[in-house]
Each structure stands twice: as C-alpha cells, then as structure tokens.
Description:
Layout: H1 3-11, H2 15-29, E1 36-38, E2 47-49, H3 56-64, H4 69-75, H5 81-93, H6 95-107
Antiparallel strand pairs: 1-2
Amino acid sequence: MSLHELEPLIQALSPSEKAQILQWISRDLGDAFPAIERNPDVLGGEACIVRTRIPVWLLVQLRRLGSAEADLLRAYPTLRAEDLANAWAYARLHPSEIEQNIIDNETAE
C-alpha cells in the first residue's frame, strides 16, 4: 500500500486513533534522531547536536535556567532552530539520561 492510498484512510480516523498511530510510529522509529548523535569519542558519548560538540543536557539546563531559544541561538551560532527542536524532543524521550548528565556535570565542576 502506498502513502497516497493511506491518506484517505488516515483522514477518516478519529483524533484518538490518529494519536495511537503516532505512538506506534514513534515506538517503531525508536531512537531515530538524525540531528542528535552519540559518539563515544565526543564528550564520552553524551547526546550532542550533530556538527557540534554541544550536548543536549547543556541546552536543557540553560533553558531551565531561563535562556530563551533566541538566546541559545545567539550564544551558539552553529545551532539552528531545528537543532533545538530536536534537542527538546530527545530530552522528552530520554529524561533520566538528561537528568543524570546534568547531575554528573554539576558534580564534576
């Protein structure tokens, strides 16, 4: 079946049925975050924005401390708005990892 054939079927679904499909797709994709990478040779394998050495946990912590997205984009010129959106999505799906990274880096200082 093609996407073109699926479109009318999906449109006929209720909002809760569409939400269920999104959950299935998200579960099927697993850790598919093309804009986030984990490389053991970069920051010990912490989740970072691709093309950079900027860890997701740092962006999350800065946001918690009151930095707006515009502030982050100015402070890190290599970041794009879509990088931040990917970082927030990653953090939502991996909260315990992000929390542990924050704790580890606070105690290391």
